[in-house]
């Protein structure tokens, strides 16, 4: 059984049934499991995607007016209702570092909701962000750049602290290790914190996997449960989508 890290109140649960994945409606709220609170604004590229003031997914600033997130985050979501918040640490506090934006355009790339392939979209914001020490663009990988097994990376988000756990107010982060490719899929990067209860969870979708200062993955889905210490976490492999990303930014 695999779960995509979908938005609050409409989590998509995918069950392997005789070799086929069937999507089932869910009702779980949309944190990093086993991580720690991040230093405020230490991930200046991370965004909170919100509906009516409630966080449902993460995203990463890749250009002054463009955000990258998971395609399943925007599925069945009216983009004109989404607010993008950058410069946040606390979701609830009135922080002077926060900048809020609307979504002007969504660039899609053939997302398959049954297989979770091509789980990436680019959002064009209604205006360029004000870049400063708290809000910055993240570095993109080269096309088809490889991330070897054993590479140390960090992921971050405001997702649940456990499968049925609490939603954090403050940004969480977790150090993870890239797994061997035979534990993953060709179009994904997988990470694990094996033998420990740590990993991504509901609400982390669309957030970044950063390795050596470069965003290599977009949080996509898990298998079984959050941070189970046995199965890896799955991220969309950003380097495979460089042409799509560049075309969106230059459109």
UniProtKB/TrEMBL annotation:
It comes from the Eukaryota. Pfam families: Trypsin (PF00089). One of its GO terms (cellular component) is cytoplasm. Coiled coil: none annotated. GO terms for molecular function: serine-type endopeptidase activity. CDD domains: Tryp_SPc (cd00190). Residues 32-250 form the Peptidase S1 domain. GO terms for biological process: proteolysis. Keywords: Disulfide bond, Glycoprotein, Hydrolase, Protease, Serine protease, Signal. InterPro entries: Peptidase_S1_Elastase_sf, Peptidase_S1_PA, Peptidase_S1_PA_chymotrypsin, Peptidase_S1A, Trypsin_dom, TRYPSIN_HIS, TRYPSIN_SER. PANTHER family: CHYMOTRYPSIN-LIKE ELASTASE FAMILY MEMBER, MYELOBLASTIN. This is Proteinase 3. The lineage of its organism: Eukaryota, Metazoa, Chordata, Craniata, Vertebrata. The gene is prtn3.
